Amino acid sequence: MVRAARPADVEAILGLIRELAQYERLEHQMHASAADLHAHLFGTPPACEALVAEAAGRVVGYAVFLGAYSTFLTRPTLYLEDLYVTPQMRGTGLGKALLAQVAAVAVQRRCPRLDWTVLEWNRPAIDFYRRLGAELADPWRLCRLDGDALARLAAGAGTI
Prior knowledge:
The protein is α+β, with helices and mostly antiparallel strands. It has a single domain (2-155), classed as Gcn5-related N-acetyltransferase (GNAT) (Aminopeptidase, 3-Layer(aba) Sandwich). It has helices at residues 10-23, 34-42, 94-108, 123-131, 147-155, and strands at residues 2-4, 49-55, 58-70, 75-85, 114-115. A 5-stranded mixed β-sheet has the order 1-2-3-4-5, with helices on both faces. The mean pLDDT is 95.
């Protein structure tokens, strides 16, 4: 079963985020806290939204998404930050159900597209997404500024 996340789900979602970080070999980049996740999911306004997948009364998967914007289309879009299902529940249809529900949100909000990224080595995920009709947006690459590089660039900005 897929449903909207509730405040009581924050700890379970955070545990799954830790699992995802381990799977993606990015534990060293994880600095998430339950308090921050709660504030960002359920604050006013929320920074993002989450769906959870349950099996036997336990949260076994999640999707976190947020609004984005396409200047080329001059339309709001959705961006899927995370989609994760525990290894023992993969192949049960829960991943597809989560992604289908995010797609339904996009359609309901009249978003012309849903975007996300996938690690180039994650062949099972790439194959899964392609089976659902997703295209890899080559030659686009994700760019990121964080930490000291972000602070250095921001320090050079004037006031608006």
